[in-house]
What does this fold into?
Amino acid sequence: MNVNGSSKFCLGQIVSTPGAIEAMEESGQTPDFFLDRHIRGDWGEVDAGDWKLNDEALEDGSRILSVFRTLKGTKLYVITEAKNDDGHRAATTLLLPDEY
It folds into this structure.
């Protein structure tokens, strides 16, 4: 995933909810597809305000949210937690909106 070095931040531990796993399996897609877009700063279908907040989060360490759709049209969130006191992001979660 993202071997060309264009990562904008660390994902931390990667986890996924059962609903997100099922949605990706139904569409024949893997988590790497969505995570690669997320880590490159392609925030998907977020509105302009959230896009701006994500860009700011690259500097201030706050939470990052991307919104994508699977090939079957299911909306999928990718959320990377804010940095902790040591400056590390603990986890990135793939989940459905109703699992948020």
